[in-house]
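Hi Q.,

Before the meeting this afternoon, I wanted you to have the 2-phosphoglycolic acid prediction in hand. No need to reply - just skim if you have a minute. The sequence and ligand are here:
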Amino acid sequence: MVKSSICYIAYMHVTLRQLEVFAAVARNESFTKAAEVLHLSQPGVSMQIKQLENNIGLPLFEHVGKKIYLTSAGREMYSYSQAISNLLGEAEDVLEELKGVHSGKLAISVATTASHFATRLLADFSKRYEGVTISLDITNRKSLQQQLENNEPDLVIMGQPPEGVDVESVAFMENPLVIIAPTNHALSKEANIPLRHFEDEHFVVRESGSGTRGAIQRFFDDHEVSFRTGIEMSSNEAIKQAVEAGLGLGIVSIHTIELELETGRLCILDVRDFPIVRHWHIVFRKGKRLSPVAQTFKQFVLDEAAQFIRLPRVV
Ligand code: PGA
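Predicted structure with the ligand bound:
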């Protein structure tokens, strides 16, 4: 968006504010909607457009019935206003780069399962770069995919990068999925349990739309073993509690059970072909111009995540 300013383009006396108002009207095809978006009155918007038209000497909109349309001058002006807006955005990025990474904003979205380590990573990052304002959204794979489609977050931490969205991704750490049971479970002392043994078992599972759930289903399908789902839960914490309470077995990322293993509340069953080996990826829209802060955070994750996050030993 063109930033409001009293800067003048001398030869046409067009101001950036006029361009901003004009672009809003053109985008919304309405003076009223543009006024809402810009928090201006409708006469205020009309006045800016009138002044712009006077400055350039041509009408920019035509009214047909209740609708407004861009004139050919309006269409030309719109494409120039977009180019000016993009250049200003670039200038802003370059200036931010000169300021370094000691200020700025970082919008990160992470998969529910990754939140167990992402919060620690972010805490460490924000201690190093105290001036950076971080916003963190924790949600499941399906919703992360939607956010990437809309190019909303700077960076996303998730399992498998999404298909059907043009993204760049780098794998940075293993994400083993394991079968968990209460410590006193009959199978807890068994070794190399065949996968078929679980065919009649009902697992406590994540909601559909979860990356973990999708990966488990694919794994059982690939091994031609049926996978029966019991209660569905949208949080790993709830799954762990349900398993501990004896509601069924669970399959979760090892990143989520560090504490339960340490305190002996849950155990990992030694199952043939397990763990399901997955990886965490840092993902962003292809062609996205990452801010200096986002670039620094990406590098921080690639350099430090594996050392920073202790993985419990997988059987
Ligand atoms: P989720 O995330 O199961 O919490 O959706 C893991 C993943 O993205 O694979």
